[in-house]
Specification:
Layout lengths: L1 H8 L6 H9 L7 H36 L8 H38 L5 H4 L8 H9 L2 H30 L9 H42 L3 H12 L2 H22 L5 E4 L4 E6 L9 E7 L1 H12 L4 E3 L1 H10 L11 H14 L7
Helix pairs in contact: 3-4, 3-8, 7-8
């Protein structure tokens, strides 16, 4: 019941992080039946296109030993040497079909999942060697039940196809008593061809259905609950409380740096009740005045306190203070549209200090 409840609560699509983790662990929507289908297809191709020529060459090689059997010493060394050469001849004749089967197995996996090596699957897990754990995996869960039913059904279907393909041979087995070896091989080749064609046709349906089921099962398994999505988002983005605290610390440090620059200002423009803007201008090094600090309410009051403590002139100009606060950031130059108003303020301040612009 708990497993059903967990499955029903998984309503959210998997996040990219979970998809990447599943890929690293080798979890894909793949079907073993597709591998089986491709292997049988390669066997059929080998039977039709490769094995006839291969078997002819093997026949010529083996005929040599039959024709010259009287020359073979019948001691242990002579027989062993012949057997060794026969094994080499068979391996040499079958290397291409065997290689194609290996390539088919690898290719089937690459087609379904792409080129990916998962070290997680390579690392041995001793829990998989336990017979009890194996029985639990077989008899627990819907997926295992489906796999068991699918295996039994596949055996029955393939067995039925094989029976109908081999039935003519069984019924006419007396005809093979007097037939020569080449005729028997040709008949066996024909039966094997029909058997592989029938099995391949059945496996095509099984592979298509199993692949669709594996994709559906994998997608369902990858779904997440709302809480899992929230937890993952919290882990990736950080705890909101911690993030808010970090934001506050950054803001406080920025304000401290800003307040530390207020003593360098030439004038503080204020709206007496809300805004304070600290400006600095050096006609020898600056193209335009620079805003060193700005603030509203409590911060504005603090700027005025620092300015008073350092004998920095405070000029009330509410429209200019509001405009500079809204349009200029800290350490930025005053824009051209405010040159005239700022110039009047700074000229007034410089006259108070008996300083002049120069040209």
């Amino acid at each position: 019941m708990s497993e059903d409840a967990d499955e029903s609560s998984k309503t959210e699509e998997p996040t990219q992080k979970k998809k990447d983790k599943a890929r690293e662990e080798g979890q894909f929507a793949r079907s073993q039946e597709v591998n089986n289908w491709l292997i049988v297809a390669v066997m059929l191709i080998s039977l039709v296109a490769i094995l006839p020529g291969t078997m002819s060459g093997l026949q010529r090689r083996l005929s040599f030993y039959i024709e010259h059997i009287y020359q073979i010493p019948m001691d242990q060394g002579g027989v062993g040497e012949v057997m060794y050469r026969v094994v080499l001849d068979v391996l040499w004749a079958l290397w291409l079909p065997v290689l194609l089967l290996v390539v088919a197995g690898v290719l089937a996996s690459i087609i379904q999942t792409g080129w990916h090596v998962s070290w997680t699957l390579i690392v041995p897990k001793f829990s998989k060697l336990s017979p009890l754990s194996g029985l639990k995996r077989i008899f627990s869960g819907v997926s295992q039940a489906v796999e068991l039913a699918k295996g039994i059904g596949k055996m029955l279907v393939v067995g039925g196809v094989s029976y109908f393909a081999l039935a003519p041979m069984v019924r006419s087995i007396e005809l093979y008593v007097g037939i020569d070896i080449l005729g028997l091989l040709a008949s066996m080749d024909d039966i094997a061809f029909h058997l592989l064609v029938g099995v391949l046709a059945i496996l095509s349906l099984i592979a298509a259905g199993d692949l669709a089921w594996q994709i559906h099962s994998h997608s369902k398994k990858m779904k997440m609950t709302k809480q899992e999505v929230k937890d993952e988002h919290k882990q990736s983005e950080g705890d909101p409380i911690v993030k808010n605290r970090i934001r506050q610390l950054r803001f406080e440090r920025a304000r401290q740096r800003m307040m530390a620059s207020v003593p360098q200002a030439d004038v503080v423009v204020t709206n007496p009740t809300h805004y304070s803007i600290a400006l600095k201008y050096d006609p020898q090094t600056m193209q335009a005045p620079i805003l060193l600090a700005k603030g509203v309410d409590a911060v504005a009051m603090k700027i005025r306190e620092v300015a008073t403590a350092h004998d920095i002139p405070i000029v009330e100009n509410p429209p200019l203070a509001r405009a500079l606060y809204a349009t200029v950031d800290i350490d930025e130059e005053v824009p051209a549209e405010h040159y005239r108003a700022v110039a009047e303020v700074i000229t007034y301040v410089f006259k108070l200090k008996r300083r002049s612009f120069g040209r």
